[in-house]
TrEMBL record:
InterPro entries registered for this protein in UniProt: AB_hydrolase_fold, Thioesterase
Recorded coiled-coil stretches: none
Gene3D superfamilies noted in UniProt: alpha/beta hydrolase
Name of the molecule in the record: Alpha/Beta hydrolase protein
Top-level division of the source organism's lineage: Eukaryota
The Thioesterase domain, residue ranges: 22-126
One of the record's GO molecular function terms: hydrolase activity
A Pfam family the protein falls into: Thioesterase
Keywords of the record: Hydrolase
Disordered, as annotated region: 174-198
Compositionally biased intervals (Low complexity): 179-193
Length: 289
């Protein structure tokens, strides 16, 4: 694991990239950010936040909200004050939703968007019946130490429990309401600004694995219950919550496991970030900034 948290994974040295919005990716269910170190050049600062409990063996008594608040604090302590993009693979994308809600209205670290990497709407299981769910069996390299296996498995188990207990944040805003730094501004009958309402979500880019996880028999992996839905179930959370979907090769657990797939996911992350920057610039121009 790494000493610094957030861990600076990529730091572009070419000056043309100096103003690119940093991307901060939260760990997956296993608690590590190793997969993000396998990505190709994103041409922007890339940070990874790992689960501090990976080493300590502790747990988050406050669940996803407590974890998200801690990670927001880490960002405020370590990342320059500027626009940021947050996201992550699987659990990392879910954490980003909670974090974006916490940071709504933050003028120092303005979340201009979220990049989810195959993050499935967690409450989809409540809307499924008659489907045989097969638990994924962890695949280990023969050189993986037992202590690493134990730590990852412990983090996965804890993450599964927390996600099951998580109440996702409630957003305000609508398609016809303008947002500034995530806060929806209203107006009275005279056109004068009113007090800010509940925060509106930032744009969300979803990278969706095209294949299903191979399982024995007629079962379905938990992450594939909504695989045929391009939104991976997020339409049940909020209408138009997902701004754009990018298909990527492989299944949920193979996204970072070959050069071809790594190249593809790198390119889609770059494109997603570019789209988020463009949307943020358009919003700024509309506000006359």
């Amino acid at each position: 694991m790494f000493d610094s948290n957030p861990n600076l994974i990529q730091e572009p040295v070419n000056r043309p990239f100096a103003r690119k919005v940093p991307l901060i990716l939260m760990h997956d269910g296993g608690g590590t950010v190793f997969s993000y170190h396998c990505l190709g050049d994103l041409s922007r600062p890339l940070y990874g936040i790992y689960n501090p409990c990976y080493h300590s063996g502790g747990s988050w008594e406050g669940g996803i909200p407590e974890m998200a608040r801690h990670y927001v604090d880490l960002i405020k302590e370590s990342v320059p004050k500027e626009d940021i993009i947050i996201g992550g693979w699987s659990l990392g994308g879910l954490l980003s939703v909670e974090m974006a809600h916490i940071m709504a209205g933050d003028l120092e670290h303005n979340v201009i968007g979220i990049v989810m990497i195959d993050s499935v709407y967690p409450k989809i299981m409540q809307n499924v019946s008659g489907t045989k769910i097969v638990q994924h069996a962890m695949q280990w390299n023969e050189h993986t130490r037992q202590e690493t296996r134990d730590a990852v498995q412990r983090c996965f188990s804890e993450a599964s429990k927390m996600v099951g207990q998580w109440t996702l944040p409630t957003w305000g805003g609508g398609d016809d309401e303008a947002t500034t730094n995530g806060v929806t501004a209203g107006a009275n009958a005279n056109g004068h600004a009113t007090e800010p309402k509940a925060p509106a979500p930032p744009p969300v880019m979803l990278l969706r694995a095209q294949e299903a996880v191979p399982v024995e028999g007629d079962g379905t992996s938990r992450v594939d219950v909504s695989r045929k839905d391009r939104l991976l179930g997020w339409g049940l959370y909020r209408d138009k919550f997902i701004t754009q979907v990018f298909d990527i090769p492989g299944h949920h657990f193979s996204i970072f496991t070959s050069d071809d797939r790594l190249k593809a996911v790198t390119e889609k992350i770059k494109l997603a970030c570019y789209q988020l920057e463009s949307k943020a610039a358009m919003r700024a121009r509309a506000r006359g900034l």
